[in-house]
Design a protein that fits this description.
- This protein is an alpha/beta fold and 391 residues long.
- It is 31% helix and 27% strand.
- It contains 13 helices and 18 strands.
- A hairpin with a 2-residue loop joins strand 8 and strand 9.
- The longest helix has 21 residues.
- The termini are far apart.
- The mean pLDDT is 94.
């Protein structure tokens, strides 16, 4: 699909309505029928767009996704709507009324900013991507707040905007790009652009090394529903601050420069910190709230004797501690009539699916167990337990 224009015509929009929700198994029959009355290319484009909309529903919600226009890269790389809305609200709370959204993609962040009442200049150099962003602003009734421009972001004057948001491309021909200077545009350029504005937010990969964070920036790692989605470098807020933000909520854990927690023996409870907490290097802050310690100096599992409520970690009650031994685990699971085995690992080379297959070859029984493959004081260990609920 190289051009969205045919899909924006009355005929194209009617076709999109007709193919909405088409199952993959039915596509051939639907295409054959529709090609009797419509150009083959238009039918293919409509079915392709329907597939993209189905994929995009997880990020944008079904109601918006059914009205929006996507490219394959746009679905893959765009910000989840909940994360974009959170960021837009932070900018609104800072008093921002206008944002230059550089590398806007299909417009996911621009949409969230506009819905927060912020005027947006959305810029992308790819013609098809810019066309999708423009179509999306119109489809969602936000064209009055979003001005889409097809241009090289390095040539755009942002001086008249309250804030700059940059979402550089982090994928190349060989997949994900891990070096921030290999982003397009490079992180160093994005930082220079940020420093020219009163406020700025730069979206970066959650795996960014902490030493790559500029001294002028606040670094925030964001998870949604337990999945780490991105990191953001904020300018014009609190330089040097580190935070982990969990959605929905939001709930934010701020870094306090604590030393690493002490290592202690495994207690009754094991806490698995949220991925954003781990990425932000704030396990010590979470452990302090729990009055807990680490099971191993190199493993981000916190253990404690008491069960405490926290949004920053998931609690498990530990029932057994065993040296790593598949045969012993298999016998124990059979004895306890375990039919559902959840395997988590940290600091172990064993693949969870491999252990599940060997330890529970024929699932049977009404009980469930979670096993943690990890190290305790340097020794390969299996910790067995179950989610701990607060009453």
């Amino acid at each position: 699909m190289n051009d969205l224009a045919p899909l924006l015509t009355p005929e194209g929009r009617a076709l999109l309505d007709e193919v909405r929700g088409t199952a993959p198994a039915d596509e051939l029959a639907v295409a054959t029928r529709l090609r009797r009355e419509h150009p083959a290319g238009l039918v293919s484009a409509a079915l392709g767009q329907a597939r993209l909309r189905q994929r995009a529903a997880a990020k944008f919600g079904a109601e918006d996704a059914e009205r929006m226009f996507f490219t394959p890269n746009g679905v893959e790389q765009s910000t989840r709507a909940s994360v974009a809305a959170y960021r837009a609200e932070r900018l609104r709370a800072l008093g921002v009324t206008s944002v230059a959204d550089l590398c806007c993609g299909i417009g996911g962040d621009a949409i969230a900013l506009a819905r927060a009442g912020i005027r947006v200049l959305a810029v992308d150099r790819d013609p098809l991507t810019a066309a999708a962003a423009r179509a999306n602003a119109d489809a969602l009734g936000l064209a009055g707040l979003i001005d889409v421009r097809e241009a090289d972001v390095t040539e755009v004057d942002t001086a008249s905007y309250d804030a700059v948001f940059v979402d550089p491309a982090r994928r190349g021909g060989r997949g994900r790009i891990f070096d921030p200077e290999a982003y397009s545009p490079p992180l160093s350029w994005a930082v220079r652009a940020a420093l020219k504005a009163p406020h700025a937010a730069l979206k970066v990969a959650p795996g960014i090394p902490h030493e790559a964070v500029p001294a002028e920036a606040e670094a925030e790692w964001i998870s949604d529903g337990g999945d780490v989605k991105e990191a953001v470098l904020w300018f014009g807020t609190a330089p040097g601050t580190v935070r982990a933000t969990l959605l929905p909520g939001p709930r934010s854990l701020l870094g306090r420069g604590l030393p690493d927690p002490e290592v202690r023996s495994v207690g009754r409870y094991l806490y698995e910190p949220d991925g954003a907490v781990i990425r932000a290097h704030l396990v010590a802050e979470a452990a302090e709230e729990l009055d807990g310690g680490l099971i191993d100096p190199t493993i981000a599992y916190v253990t404690a004797d008491a069960l405490r409520a926290t949004p920053y970690a998931t609690a498990y009650e530990i029932t057994d501690r065993l040296p790593f031994n598949v045969k012993k685990l298999k016998a124990l699971l059979r004895e306890r009539e375990v039919g559902i085995l959840t395997v988590k690992k940290r600091g172990s080379a064993v693949e969870p699916e491999e252990l599940r297959r060997k330890a529970l070859p024929k699932p049977q029984g009404p009980h469930s167990v979670t096993v943690f493959l990890t190290r305790v004081a340097g020794a390969p260990t299996m910790l067995l337990g179950r989610p701990a609920g607060l009453t």
